Amino acid sequence: MPQLEATPTIDYQSETYKDAYSRINAIVIEGEHEAYENFVKLAELLPEHQDKLTALAKMERRHEKGFQACGRNLEVTPDMEFAREFFSKLRDNFQKAGEEGDIVTCLVIQALIIECFAISAYNIYLPVADSFSHKITEGVVKDEYLHLNFGEEWLKARFEEVKPRIEEANRQNLPLVWGMLNQVEDDANVLHMAKEELIEDFTISYGEALGNIGFNTRETVRMLAQGLRQGV
Ligand code: PL3
Ligand code: FE2
Ligand code: FE2
């Protein structure tokens, strides 16, 4: 497959582009930052996987730094306040689950939902990224599959036992993602990323993850549709 390079028609220096980038870049920086904290929390909740989870957390730190460099490279100041608000509901739900020692919900939120969201967004972004951000994002997206995989493996290994709780966590958190996609739609368009493609890619990644864990097609479709009905 040919390497997709930056589309020459995009003006990365225009005020419109930089304005949208200030929010999208902040979302990604904040998302990576919270992912770091979430993996640190998971390492605490799963001491038998401490080394692995600590290594995954460190990757998130690197991702955060990488995306900060992308913003600096375009001379954009990320709107971090906007981004903290953007993640607030998902962050609250993760933290509440963490306090309750609810490992399943924590994994559904971070390793499945957030990682699939990141994987789909980064894949859609790559063909339209400036060349600096392209290099960074390419490296990041490879790591995100490892994060997703950790969650899949853990949940799959105890599927029957954790199934109802996964369904509940899906019910409570998937609608938030559809809402977040709506919020990011206009800015994503300015970056030449289409919401339909984001939805399509997310649906495929998340649906595949549910399938890998043990849900059948009917259950997977039902879980996806549920979030969609309430969120959009
Ligand atoms: C987990 O490792 C990271 C979580 C980050 C969540 C990212 C959400 C992305 C929303 C749309 C962003 C488009 C990508 C642009 C990259 C500069
Ligand atoms: Fe990451
Ligand atoms: Fe990640």
Provide the descriptors you would attach to this structure in a database record.
binds hexadecan-1-ol, 232 residues, mainly alpha, globular, 9 helices
Task: Please render the helix and strand layout as text.
Layout: H1 15-45, H2 50-73, H3 80-86, H4 88-99, H5 103-125, H6 131-157, H7 159-190, H8 195-213, H9 217-231
Helix pairs in contact: 1-2, 1-3, 1-4, 1-5, 1-7, 2-6, 4-5, 5-6, 5-7, 5-8, 6-8, 7-8, 7-9, 8-9
The structure holds hexadecan-1-ol (PL3) and fe (ii) ion (2 copies).
Strand content: under 5%
Instruction: Specify the oligomeric state.
Output: single chain
Total beta-strand segments: 0
Report Rg.
Answer: 17 Å
Tell me, rounded to a whole number, the average pLDDT.
94
In this entry the ligands are: hexadecan-1-ol, fe (ii) ion
**Share of helix, binned:** over 70%
The profile of the biggest β sheet is: none
N to C succession of SSEs: HHHHHHHHH
Question: N- to C-terminal separation?
Answer: 34 Å
Judging from the principal axes of the Cα atoms, what is the shape?
globular
Structural write-up:
The protein contains 9 helices and no strands. With 232 residues, it is mainly α. Helix 4 packs antiparallel against helix 5 (103-125). The longest helix has 32 residues, at 159-190. It is globular and about 55 Å long. The mean pLDDT is 94. It binds hexadecan-1-ol and fe (ii) ion (2 copies).
